[in-house]
Design brief:
Number of helices: 10
Strand content: 15-25%
Shape: globular
Structural class: alpha+beta
CATH superfamily of the largest domain: Jelly Rolls
Number of strands: 10
Low-confidence stretches: none
Length: 258
C-alpha cells in the first residue's frame, strides 16, 4: 500500500491528496479545501482554535489553517478553485463562514478514497470514482453547480490556465477578454477578489504542484515557473501548501483524470 496518492482532475479542477498527512503547518491559499478523516481523528486549527474534522470539513479560500492527524492513518484533502462551479458549490456549504463542518457521514467518498491506496486494479478509474463522489457531494449539499463570473474574466482565466507555466502578461489577458488593460485589471479584482498578479502567482504554484508530483526536479521546476532558485520556490510552496515540496516527492504516486 502506498503512503500517498495524488489526483489531478482536469474537468472538475480537483487536486486531491489521499494518504498519510506528514507535516502540515499553518498556510493559506486560493483553493477551497474539503478535508475528511479516513481513520484516526484529524483536526484543523483556524484562528487559534482547533476543530475536529470528523466526516468532513470545508475551509474557505485564503483562510489560514493547519491540519493535523493524531496517527499515521490516511486523510483526504481535496482542493478546488472557489471561482469554478464545483468550488462555488462547496463555498455555499459554508454560508459565508470561514469553515463549516458537514452533517452526516460521507461514506461513498471515504470508500472511494481508501480504494486509491490499494496497489491492485485500475488507479485512474478509482480516481475518477472519487472525483464523481466529490461532485455528488457538491451538487447535493451545495445546491447544484453554477459559476457566477463575468464570461470575459472566464476567457482570460482559461487563457492563463492553458499556458504551460501559467504566465500570461496582463495585456494579453486583457486582449482575451476584449477589454483595455486598465479596465480588465479593475474588473478582474472586482470579480476575483485579488489582483491579476497575485492570481498568476497562485496559478504558477498550482501548476508547479502538479509538476513536482509528477517527478520534476526542484531546480528545474523553480526556474520553469519563474522562481529565482529552488530555495525561493520551496519557501513559496510551503507558504501555500503547508509542507515542503520534497514531502510530496516521497512515497507518493500521481494520477491524472479527465
Amino acid at each position: 500500500m502506498h503512503v500517498r496518492t495524488i489526483v489531478q482532475s482536469k474537468s472538475s479542477g480537483y487536486a486531491i491528496i489521499v494518504g498519510r498527512l506528514a507535516q502540515n503547518e499553518r498556510h493559506s491559499h486560493f483553493s477551497v479545501h474539503f478535508v475528511q478523516e479516513l481513520g484516526a481523528p484529524v483536526s484543523v486549527t483556524v484562528d487559534g482554535a482547533t476543530h475536529r474534522v470528523g466526516p468532513g470539513l470545508v475551509i474557505d479560500s485564503w483562510v489560514p489553517h493547519a491540519i493535523e492527524s493524531e496517527a499515521d492513518d490516511p486523510v483526504l484533502i481535496a482542493s478546488v478553485s472557489p471561482i469554478g462551479a464545483h468550488g462555488s458549490a462547496f463555498r455555499r456549504l459554508m454560508a459565508g463562514q470561514p469553515f463549516a463542518p458537514l452533517r452526516g457521514e460521507s461514506a461513498e467518498i471515504k470508500k472511494r478514497a481508501l480504494e486509491l491506496l490499494k496497489d491492485d486494479g485500475d488507479l485512474e478509474a478509482r480516481a475518477a470514482h472519487l472525483c464523481a463522489a466529490l461532485n455528488q457531494l457538491a451538487v447535493s449539499r451545495g445546491a447544484g453547480l453554477t459559476a457566477e463570473l463575468d464570461p470575459r474574466i472566464i476567457r482570460a482565466l482559461q487563457a492563463v490556465g492553458a499556458h504551460t507555466t501559467g504566465f500570461l502578461p496582463a495585456a494579453d489577458a486583457a486582449s482575451e477578454a476584449d477589454l483595455s488593460e486598465s479596465r480588465f485589471l479593475h474588473l478582474f479584482r472586482d470579480q476575483i477578489g485579488m489582483t491579476y498578479r497575485k492570481m498568476q502567482r497562485w496559478i504558477r504554484l498550482a501548476k508547479s504542484f502538479e509538476r513536482v508530483c509528477a517527478g520534476g526536479s526542484l531546480t528545474e521546476t523553480a526556474f520553469e515557473f519563474g522562481f529565482a532558485d529552488s530555495a525561493h520556490f520551496s519557501r513559496a510552496f510551503h507558504e501555500a501548501f503547508g509542507m515542503a515540496p520534497t514531502v510530496l516527492m516521497q512515497d507518493s504516486r500521481f494520477v491524472q483524470v479527465r
